[in-house]
Amino acid sequence: MTGSDRPPRAAPYAASDPAAFPPARRGRRGGLILVPAISTATVLSALGLWVVATRAGWVKPLFLPPPEAVLSAFAQAWRGAVDGAPLGIHIRDSLLRVLGAFGLAALVGIPIGLAMGTSRIARGILDPPIEFYRPLPPLAYLPLMIIWFGIGELSKVLLIFLACLAPVALAARAGVRSASIDQINAARALGASRWQLLRHVVFPAALPEILIGLRIGMGVGWTTLVAAEMVAAQAGLGQLVLNASNFLRTDVVLMGILLIGLFAGLFELGMRCLERALVPWKGRA
Questions:
Q1: Closest among 228, 222, 255 to 83, alpha carbons compared
Q2: Which of 47, 138, 240, 281 is deepest in the core (most CB within 10 A)?
Q3: What is the pTM of this model?
Q4: 20 part of a folded domain
Q5: Domain of 220: which CATH number?
Q6: Residue 29, CB half-sphere, CA atoms under 13 Å: how many?
Q7: Which residues contact 271 (CB under 8 A, 6 or more apart)?
């Protein structure tokens, strides 16, 4: 077959052609609607399975109480008939501990991460202690917190703070690498100082990674809450769950777990909304 007899090749899609990939564009719009529908169906299916399993007697109430028992436990806890203190007090104390520790971790961890990403000296000083304690479970250094700071609120907040600090700092350090060398050189050529370079170039480029680190840190803070409230806590959702487990009140335990998951999910949703507001360009071509 000669060159003149060969069929012409199809022209490749142009990158600037908005109609070049219509299936992907339709799939993205459909995905925005499909994902919440699938999530809702998953939650409803789990609730339905819970109802069927408890009504049919597949699982004993000691191991999995029915939904109405959990609702009854919620009403009892709200009146203070479960653990001596109303449920609102437990929620308030847990929120104060988690939010206080998370806010402190954000105020300390973000500057530490930016310093580690922009300075070799800071990285050499701060990287070893953070990488050393980061893999440790909070229960491992909980006794040390008690010995050093007692059994008051300080040790509880510090335990959650240390759990949140590492992911926030490491995410900020990784985000510094998102700033391109061309942006940095352009800012320097315009006479930007080191502080202006950090504020107007490095920090905006690192912001998406920082927000991811904050989301991870918030999740770790909630998982550490139960460990923090194991020691001499007068109130708190973790303390409520632990006390109920000692008396085999599975309905109260499940109610506390659902409340912790609910508040953690609300904070995650809030962080996603904040991410869409601060970095609307993320994930867009």
A1: 255
A2: 240
A3: 0.78
A4: no
A5: 1.10.3720.10
A6: 4
A7: 211, 214, 215, 218
- Helix 250-278 to helix 237-246 angle (10° resolution) is 160
Per-residue pLDDT, 30: 53
> What average pLDDT score do residues 117-140 get?
89
CB distance 115 to 122 below 8 Å = yes
User: 3-class SS at 245?
Assistant: helix
In a domain, 57, yes or no: no
With respect to residue 90, please indicate whether it lies within any of the assigned structural domains: yes
Count the domains in the chain: 1
Eight-state DSSP code of residue 236: -
What pLDDT, on the 0 to 100 scale, is given for residue 21?
39
| Residue bearing tokens 């499940």 | 254
pLDDT at position 172? 92
What is the Cα–Cα distance from 75 to 92, expressed in whole angstroms? Answer: 17
Q: Return the pLDDT at 181.
A: 77
Burial call 67-86: b when 16+ CB within 10 Å, e when fewer: eebbeebbebbeeeebbebb
